[in-house]
Amino acid sequence: MIDDVPRRNLTKEAEVSDLRCIKALWRAGSAAWAVPADWWAPAVDAMVLALHRGQSVDHACAALGGARARTGVGVAEGLRDLAALYASLGRAEPPLTALCAFASGWAEASFAPMAELTCDDPLSGLATPPYLRTRLAELYREAAAGGLSPGSSHRLVVVSLGVPPADPFVRIADLLRAAEVMRATFPGGDTLALMPPARVAALIRVRLAVRLTALRRSLRGLAAEVVAHRLPETLASAVRLTLPQTPPAPTSRGGGGNGAGGPDLRLSTMSDREKLLDEIKAKGVVHGRVVLSSGKEADYYVDLRRITLDGLAAPLVGRVLLDLTEDLGYEAVGGLTLGADPVATAMLHAAAARGQVLDAFVVRKEGKAHGLQRRIEGPDVAGRRVLAVEDTTTTGGSVLTAVTALREAGAIVVGIATIVHRGGDEKLAAAGLPYRTVFSLADLGLG
């Protein structure tokens, strides 16, 4: 028996010898194997190596389960074989997490051929990735025939689950819950698809994007990220959104380096909105007696320049505001300098990261007396649908000044958006424009 193998310091040659020994004991213990020739698979070696080194065997067990399923081995035969491995090492039985991982891998591999042959995923009842890609191809052909852009009519909403739990059955349950929430949020015949291993997608019409807030609310507690992708110009780019995603390397503060030790924003178990709220509470709320630009006094100051100009927080601002205003259909974004400038820039870059084109502009407090004498800097806004933004709304005066200047320049103002709302309700209501805010003072613990 080799139950002390993981605790020995071995040379490479000794380790190889031990691995062969463990494998031989395992094979001998699994004497009832129906077809001896198909017992070995690369996953067998991975399993032995993980046990030998004292590492977690969950991933190796899942791979072994998948390998067994692909060779036609039943789940009972496969689990008996796994038990033989542990018995050969003098251990009573495989731990529950190993059994769950094996069963999960076996089930996923067993159902995969069925998913390719049908339009529906057998576990969730949602469409399969191949069907979703077929539906995208149809949409792009229809758009081309009508001279339209798919991005103007549809969005691909993707719910991505966070870091996998230790129990693979919990991940399956989370996926099924996300699928059910997606089905309840978009019940009108939209294409809903399960995209293994951890994503659910919905191909929806733009007018349904107003339901994204309800979707995020329903997914609270599920450690899920929701992203609404404007469909890119080409079908190939749209198809790439449906392919398995490789997590990016962790991001570090500051330039250069390999990112070691930085937070992995993509795999965070928090939504962008939740992460932004934490950033504001930690960096953007200053306590002490201050006089606001409106002339009012307060016991605290919400300094969102510390957020909108922060290397980690600013991208969150852009993504959150894009999601919040998804249904308004605008071509450019900006507001009264200075507070609105980094907000608009964050949204511009967030849109670019999603394959979208969004212009930004700056509204001066008054027109220049020299040069082109423009009050609105940046791309021309005349005749274009624009969104007016600011970081904090206290009276509504600043953003409504920008709205007036934009209308004078011939822009079509479709709405107003802010990160934190403090007041100005009457003025904003009188403006007659859709008004969106990410947080209230109560959200910040200041109400």
UniProtKB/TrEMBL annotation:
Sequence ranges of Gly residues compositional bias: 253-262
Pfam families, sorted: Pribosyltran
Amino-acid positions noted as binding orotate in the UniProt annotation, renumbered to this chain: 394, 422
UniProt-annotated stretches for the region Disordered: 243-263
Domain named Phosphoribosyltransferase: residues: 377-427
Binding positions for 5-phospho-alpha-D-ribose 1-diphosphate per the UniProt entry: 364-365, 368, 370, 390-398
EC number: 2.4.2.10
Keywords, in A-Z order: Glycosyltransferase, Magnesium, Pyrimidine biosynthesis, Transferase
GO BP terms: 'de novo' UMP biosynthetic process; pyrimidine nucleobase biosynthetic process
Catalysed transformations (reactions): orotidine 5'-phosphate + diphosphate = orotate + 5-phospho-alpha-D-ribose 1-diphosphate
Keyword Transferase found: yes
Gene3D superfamilies listed in its UniProt record: 3.40.50.2020
Coiled-coil residue spans: none
Cofactor list: Mg(2+)
Gene Ontology molecular-function annotations: magnesium ion binding; orotate phosphoribosyltransferase activity
Annotated metabolic or biological route of this protein: Pyrimidine metabolism; UMP biosynthesis via de novo pathway; UMP from orotate: step 1/2
Superkingdom of the source species: Bacteria
Signal sequence coordinates: none
InterPro entries (UniProt xref): OPRT, Or_phspho_trans_dom, PRTase-like, PRTase_dom
PANTHER family tied to this protein: OROTATE PHOSPHORIBOSYLTRANSFERASE, URIDINE 5'-MONOPHOSPHATE SYNTHASE
HAMAP family: PyrE
Role description: Catalyzes the transfer of a ribosyl phosphate group from 5-phosphoribose 1-diphosphate to orotate, leading to the formation of orotidine monophosphate (OMP).
Subunit-level organization: Homodimer.
Family: Belongs to the purine/pyrimidine phosphoribosyltransferase family. PyrE subfamily.
Protein name: Orotate phosphoribosyltransferase
